[in-house]
Design goal:
By secondary structure, this protein is an alpha+beta fold. The chain has 2 domains: 295 residues, no CATH class; 214 residues, no CATH class. It is built from 19 helices and 22 strands. The chain has a 20-stranded antiparallel β-sheet, with helices on both faces. It has a two-stranded antiparallel ribbon with strand order 11-19. A hairpin with a 7-residue loop joins β9 and β10. α17 crosses α18. The longest helix is centred in the N-terminal third of the chain and has 18 residues. 44% of the residues are buried.
Length: 581
């Protein structure tokens, strides 16, 4: 039973339900659970009492999934309902893989109006000799505890032999699990009761718990008995909940320090931050699904206040030169101010520094961020091009910014930096769709020996090889930079081929507030790449489940925007586009 695949699939189901539900007026009847949620003060999900405040990732859905499915069917034309049902049927194939649990048979009959999923710990047995064993917990409310008991009992009898079934009492709760894994000690023939497996428990007359180890369930029960252990009693969590909109039907809580510790290639890009809360709302627009985001500071820390924003129309100039094929783009104004914000600034800083390093940098003589970017004062756009577009480099970037007096001084500084790194500046003319352009190129020369003839007694002939480190040109009010001449040629194509005119990009940013601090936009290939880089375990779980892998293919793009911050919270939003609208 590969429970990591199970939990990630279950999380995917919950997220997709949140994304595709919408709010049908015919469904929003007086007695619906969602209407009650909107009327009431937003409170902590009841199932959060089982989750540790140290959990890296928690997602809660506060409406029964079947009601969300019904809502979705009411919001689409009749001719599209078959497609919606087929999509959900595909997700059912991905649901609960390797556990032998069936949603329709074993869960749906008794499921209530709340599901919480959590990664409880990066290594639940704290034994590094057997690798990281992430702890997973699913806590659900039940509308019929007796039926839940009977259904789960029947499940265990159906799929697990009597000699393999373990029933243990813990704090008055019966925990059922399967005991198959041998102890890691090769000299011992005893079986480990805490090895990864499926474990279940019905708690009181309201809750059902599933986990990948009985140890995870015991700790979940401890969280109820010792209040200060649970997420529900986290002051930061409660403060974030107080700011949720009334229409929130789902939320995601991320403990950043714990999450960074799990990532195989992750860096702490927000060292001053402690957690992120995302809330999924009913008021989804036809253009996409929107989640409000809040970033909270670590205990004893605070953010620098920043409320500067621009109208998105002010960013269109730079975006005209960003190729439509870009799989990642970031745009905004006044980069220096943005670099002081907690999430956009840290993320942008890493990517812009990567661009500078690719263009000019020498590892022995690194360029500081302020040295490389202090001259960027107007609107700007940065983009990553895909590798399959005939480009010479594994990662080609385009950067565009508005001309200014600071820009001219900055270019002189960049040229001086280039010379310090043994890079030569030259120029040439290039015929482009926008006219004959003077292109400046930073190049590095290096000698190369030519292979001599076997019969020749002369020394090897020598040649110079040229490596382009970066190119730039001026068009109208903007200066364009690229990491290769091919990438520059893409940037100089007609404006109708730009990201600004791309329908997917316009749909992605449409749900976001028009006054903001800029956008970060990424497409599906970039999303997959980020997942793979961040966690090999999550990536493996997705690829092992073909239905889940196909579901990820339905995701088209994400767009993120920051709305500013106070000393206590940074706010923003994320828009998610999928083929299921």
């Amino acid at each position: 039973m590969k429970f990591r695949t199970f939990i990630i699939s279950l999380t995917a189901i919950v997220i997709l339900l949140l994304l595709t539900a919408g709010a049908g007026a015919a469904w929003m009847v007086v007695n619906s659970p969602v209407t009650k949620l909107q009327r009431a003060t937003v409170a902590s999900p009841a199932t959060a009492v089982f989750v540790s405040r140290q959990s890296p990732f928690v997602a809660s859905l506060r409406v029964n999934p079947d009601r969300l499915m019904a809502a979705k069917l009411l919001t689409v034309p009749a001719q599209q309902r078959g497609q919606v049902r087929d999509s959900f049927a595909q997700l059912q194939k991905a649901f609960l893989p390797d556990t032998q649990l069936s949603y329709s048979r074993d869960i749906q009959p008794w499921l209530g109006d709340e599901i919480t999923l959590a990664i409880t710990t990066a290594d639940f047995d704290r034994d590094r000799s057997n690798g990281d064993q992430m702890g997973y917990l699913v806590a659900m409310t039940t509308s019929n505890p007796t039926l839940a008991q009977q259904t789960l009992k029947t499940f265990w009898q159906r799929h697990v032999r009597a000699k393999d079934r373990v029933s243990e009492a813990y704090a008055g709760v019966e925990i059922m699990h399967r005991n198959l894994a041998k102890n890691r000690n090769p000299l011992s023939q005893t079986e480990s009761l805490d090895a990864p497996t499926l474990a279940s428990a019905v708690v009181g007359d309201r809750f059902v718990l599933l986990a990948n180890s009985p140890k995870v369930l015991r700790e979940a029960i401890n969280n109820v008995q010792v209040a200060e252990l649970s997420l529900e009693n986290s002051e930061a969590y409660q403060q974030a909940l107080d700011q949720l909109p009334q229409s929130a039907i789902g939320l995601t809580w991320v403990n950043l320090p714990q999450l960074w510790a799990m990532g195989s290639a992750a860096e702490n890009v927000a060292p001053n931050a402690a957690s992120v809360l995302a809330s999924w709302n009913l008021d989804a627009s036809p253009e996409g699904r929107l989640a409000d985001l809040m970033l909270l500071p670590a205990a004893g820390s605070s953010f620098s206040s920043s409320s500067s924003s621009v109208n998105s129309s002010e960013l269109s100039g730079a975006l005209r030169y960003i190729p439509a094929a870009s799989i990642f783009a970031a745009t905004g104004a006044d980069l220096q101010s943005q670099l002081e914000t907690e999430w956009v600034g840290d993320v942008l800083a890493q990517w812009v520094e990567q661009w500078i390093e690719r263009s000019l940098n020498d590892p022995a003589q690194p360029i500081s961020l302020s040295e490389g970017l202090g001259w960027i004062t107007g609107d700007y756009a940065l983009a990553l091009l895909p590798q399959n577009q005939g480009l010479p480099n594994p990662a080609d970037w385009v950067f565009v910014t508005r001309k200014s007096p600071e820009l001219l001084a900055g270019l002189e500084k960049l040229d001086a930096i280039a010379q310090k790194h043994n890079v030569t500046l030259g120029s040439f003319s290039l015929d482009t769709p926008v006219g004959n352009q003077e292109i400046f190129a930073w190049t590095k020369f290096s000698p190369r020996s030519l292979k001599p003839s076997k019969t020749s007694s002369q020394p090897s002939a020598m040649a110079l090889t040229t490596e382009v480190q970066g190119v730039r040109t001026a068009v109208g009010d903007y200066e364009i930079f690229a990491t290769s001449l091919e990438a520059m040629n893409w940037a100089l194509q007609p404006s109708e081929n730009s990201l600004l005119q791309k329908a997917d990009f316009q749909r992605a940013i449409a749900p976001l507030a028009r006054n903001n601090q800029g956008y970060i936009y990424l497409e599906q290939p970039m999303l997959r790449s980020l997942i793979k880089q961040f966690s090999s375990q999550i990536h493996a779980a997705i690829t092992e489940n073909s239905s889940l892998d196909q579901w990820l293919d339905q995701w088209q793009s994400l767009a993120f925007s920051s709305y500013g911050q106070t000393d206590r919270v940074a706010k923003g939003a994320i828009s998610i586009q999928s083929k299921i609208n």
